[in-house]
Write a sequence for this structure.
């Protein structure tokens, strides 16, 4: 048992699926397979986007940001999960919990904003094609990316810091697989209404507002696509946007169900399965979604693979 004092524990016992021990081995195997797959897939997208001149466009600039985010996002939680699932020691130090809390939420919050920026990029490409290069210039892309990272850091840092101020009253058990804000708020003692309200406000700006912008962008895109007379043109426009829409639904669905409700009303197993989904499943699937539905990325990967074989 982890030693604690009344105010600050030395560490936390992550209960995870302690009530379902039969789940631990299958989950360990799944994570052991998906983690390197996610890392290799996202690294491949970053490399081809940098190496292939055909992919030097705003769309792939933001896609490399997404791949980097996904790598950091999944790395912040999966190694700790593997350590806990693969051994009888299911603890995380207090500082380890703090680092995980900050990194996980900074990456998650930044990804919410990035998905909105990527939808704006698709909106300009399809609804304002003649002005695309003028609008989505290098300066604007850099400004959008910098603002996105800065905003994600500020919102996540402030909310995580506020959560860490809550008294734990000797509690050192978290019924979760990782350190996450809603679970820490639920485990804390004393008055938590202010923290729950602050989390709701932050999530409105980080989750709800970007999602509304995404939906508005795709409503305009949908109208523009319907006006395209050629079936080939409609198919190309749909193919360009469908990958991003799939990623949006995979990420936002679980995140909304987890964060846009008071932590006190969250069920026992909901955080575990939601964290596995948007922290593991989505980062693993993203490279495949963008690769399988994108001829440019598939071509660039094939070209890179061929050049590597020829070099040997």
């Amino acid at each position: 048992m982890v030693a604690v004092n009344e105010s600050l524990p030395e560490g936390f016992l992550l209960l995870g699926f302690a009530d379902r021990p039969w789940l631990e081995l299958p989950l360990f195997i799944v994570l052991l397979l998906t983690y390197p797959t996610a890392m290799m897939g996202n690294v491949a997208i970053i490399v081809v986007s940098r190496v292939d001149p055909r992919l030097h466009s705003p769309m792939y600039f933001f896609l490399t940001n997404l791949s980097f985010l996904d790598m950091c996002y999944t790395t912040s939680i999966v190694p700790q999960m593997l350590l806990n699932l693969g051994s009888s020691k299911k603890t995380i130090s207090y500082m380890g919990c703090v680092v995980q809390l900050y990194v996980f939420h900074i990456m998650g919050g930044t990804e919410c904003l990035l998905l909105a920026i990527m939808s704006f990029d698709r909106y300009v490409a399809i609804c304002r094609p003649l002005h695309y290069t003028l609008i989505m210039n290098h300066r604007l892309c850099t400004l959008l990316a910098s603002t996105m990272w800065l905003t994600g850091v500020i919102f996540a840092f402030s909310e995580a810091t506020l959560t860490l101020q809550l008294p734990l009253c000797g509690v050192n058990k978290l019924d979760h697989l990782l350190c996450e804000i809603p679970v820490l708020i639920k485990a804390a003692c004393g008055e938590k209404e202010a923290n729950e309200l602050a989390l709701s406000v932050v999530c409105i700006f980080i989750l709800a507002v970007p999602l509304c912008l995404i939906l508005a962008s795709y409503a305009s895109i949908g109208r523009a696509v319907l006006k395209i007379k050629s079936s080939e043109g409609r198919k190309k426009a749909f193919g360009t946007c469908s990958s991003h829409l799939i990623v949006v639904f995979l990420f936002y669905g679980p995140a909304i169900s987890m964060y846009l409700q008071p932590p006190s009303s969250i069920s026992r197993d909901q955080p575990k399965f939601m964290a596995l989904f948007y922290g593991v499943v989505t980062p693993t699937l993203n490279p495949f979604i963008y690769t399988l539905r994108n001829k440019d990325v598939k071509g660039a990967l094939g070209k890179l693979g061929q050049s590597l074989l020829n070099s040997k």
Notes: The first strand starts at residue 11 and ends at 14.
